[in-house]
Design brief:
Elements: H1 3-33, H2 35-58, H3 62-68, H4 76-95, H5 97-118, H6 130-146
Helix pairs in contact: 1-2, 1-4, 1-5, 2-4, 4-5, 5-6
């Protein structure tokens, strides 16, 4: 595995670990201050961190202008991030952290398989073979089982 691939694997796994912590934390914050208040505050924290990292790494904010000039459909990542944070703020207090994360991961995997299969959003087409289908079905079954407290 090349260095870049290894970094991608470590970051992806770390993001998965962080996502579960994020769901637990956001669920608690949402209970304490309100769902939309927690979403708004989380967004402010993300903006501050994102701008700080950009300034430290690139020493400028020039890239923001370049991003703003991209097609609007490429902006959906930000909107979807807000939706994901909303969902993981609502879910944990009601169905638990495990069920929330399991359902998010199942949804991620289902949509990822469709994107790969059809090469949507500028991605390379990757076949949806039986091991991938089986993995998705098993994950979906596992997610359904996590809904039982």
């Amino acid at each position: 595995m090349s260095g870049g691939n290894a970094l991608a694997v470590v970051l992806a796994l770390s993001a998965g670990l962080a996502g579960s912590v994020q769901a637990a934390v956001m669920g608690k914050l949402g209970e304490r201050v309100g769902t939309f208040e927690a979403l708004g505050f989380s967004t402010i924290v993300s903006i501050v961190i994102g701008l700080t990292v950009l300034l430290v790494v690139r020493q400028s904010f020039d890239g923001i202008g370049a991003a703003a000039r991209q097609p609007v459909w490429l902006w959906t990542g930000g909107a979807l991030s807000a939706f994901i944070v909303l969902a993981i703020t609502v879910g944990p207090p009601r169905i638990g952290v495990t069920a929330t994360v399991a359902l998010v991961i199942t949804g991620n995997l289902l949509m990822a398989a469709v994107i790969d299969r059809f090469g949507w959003l500028g991605n390379e087409q990757i076949a949806l073979d039986w091991p991938r289908v089986l993995g998705i079905l098993l994950l979906a079954a596992g997610a359904a089982l996590t809904l039982h407290k």
